[in-house]
Design a protein that fits this description.
Layout: H1 2-12, E1 17-24, E2 37-46, H2 49-54, E3 60-69, H3 74-83, H4 86-90, H5 94-100, E4 103-114, E5 117-127, E6 131-141, E7 146-147, H6 150-153, H7 159-180, H8 184-190, E8 207-209, E9 213-217, E10 234-238, H9 239-242
Parallel strand pairs: 3-4
Antiparallel strand pairs: 1-2, 2-3, 4-5, 5-6, 6-7, 8-9, 9-10
Length: 257
């Protein structure tokens, strides 16, 4: 009985963090070079009693983040793990999240994990004056252990025309949003908010890879009061449509060769 009591006290005193592991995010569990093995790690942050008295609904926060393994090259695996270091995602440590009190949920989705590419999206949500949610997307070249940029995968002489093609989809979405807000009250909220929105070459670094094509991502950054009017900012193009733009010798050349 004394031994059991000691174990329980040790667990409860671990910085108020409850840490559990979950099954891997992909079925492949053998070391390889073209994908990683991802294990979900779940942490429950329990805030102080004083904080819980002031904000009863924010006593706890749940964090789920990936633990990566499975690459045959140890140096390459270290580089990938460094890119996914917890504090680098939103520039907050576990200790800071616990003390701040804003966070309610931190999680991730693996969009793609094969063919030497890891595509992953992190999200965090919390409450201050208003509820808020933020996301960060990463696509990692598993051959080199570095973040993929537009210059790595698209032909340099095609970047402007590619950006223009994506911008056309953004402007179409804006036109649809304006048409859906014809009521005079709603129209006042819409007027002028889209004037500066344009998908440009500098936005091409934000893209997500899938088995059938690429989704370009665009964050308009609208404030909370007009967040409902914000474009979704996700524009999909198939690999066949993007064939003239993709570098044949680049990481995405495998989809168009």
């Amino acid at each position: 009985m004394q031994k059991l009591t000691f174990v329980l006290l040790a667990v409860l005193s671990f910085n108020n963090f409850n840490i559990t592991s979950a099954p891997t995010d992909n079925a492949k569990t053998q070391p390889a070079n073209d994908h990683v093995i991802i294990q979900r790690r779940r942490i429950v942050i329990v805030r102080s009693r004083e904080f819980a008295k002031q904000f009863p609904g924010r006593k706890r926060a749940v964090i789920t983040y990936p633990l990566v393994s499975g690459l045959n090259n140890p140096a390459l695996l270290r580089r990938v793990r460094s890119l996914l270091d917890f504090k680098k995602i939103f520039d907050y440590s576990l200790k800071e999240y616990r003390e701040d009190g804003w966070l309610s949920d931190f999680s991730y989705i693996v969009n793609y994990n094969r063919n030497h590419l890891l595509d992953i999206t992190f999200t965090q949500s919390g409450m201050a004056a208003y509820p808020d949610e933020q996301s960060k997307h990463l696509i990692i070249n598993l051959r080199q252990g570095r973040i993929l940029k537009a210059a790595d995968v698209f032909n340099s002489n095609k970047l402007d025309s590619l950006a223009a093609m994506v911008d056309l989809e953004l402007q179409r979405e804006i036109t649809r949003i304006v048409k859906e807000n014809k009521d005079p009250v709603e129209k006042d909220a819409v007027d002028g908010v889209f004037d500066d929105l344009k998908f440009e070459g500098t936005n091409l670094d934000e893209f997500s890879v899938g088995p059938k094509g690429i989704t370009f991502l665009y964050d308009a950054g609208f404030p909370h009061v007009i967040k409902a009017l914000e474009p979704e900012g996700r524009y999909f193009f198939s690999y066949s449509n993007l064939k003239p733009y993709i570098k044949r010798e680049g990481p995405l050349g495998q989809f168009v060769n």
